[in-house]
Fold this protein.
Amino acid sequence: MAKTVKFGGSAPLTPIDIQTFSKSEDRERLSTVALKAFRAIATQWELSNSEAAALLGVSESTWDRIKRGAWEQALSQDQLTRASAAIGVYKGLHLLFADAMADEWPRLPNRGPIFQRLSPVDAMIEGGIPLMLETRRYVDAVRGGI
């Protein structure tokens, strides 16, 4: 139960329950929409089954069930973080580029310092969550969002 706090003569403040990926109820609520968005990104970026599975942090057989809509479990904290990072990269690219480059960029070899001449997709697969989050920050910084 949330505790009410009162400061001086101000109205009482009730702390809000912050959304996190660590709470099972938050993961259950967010998983369906995260998977819908990630499936759309996999299509737009023309990811192979193995690439999509690796980015999301699931096996290829699980990715196949997700694609068919036969997955009804909540994603794990790591999987939601991966989906969120991919969604952030996708959104940032569509704010940065007003054309097809937004969906081509993730597949192109990149000389940016974090990619080591790999495509962002390959670099994110190789680097896991840390590089997925760094790619999101990179895209945000390039478009001036930081």
The chain has one domain: 24-142. The chain has a mean pLDDT of 88. The two ends are 36 Å apart (CA to CA).
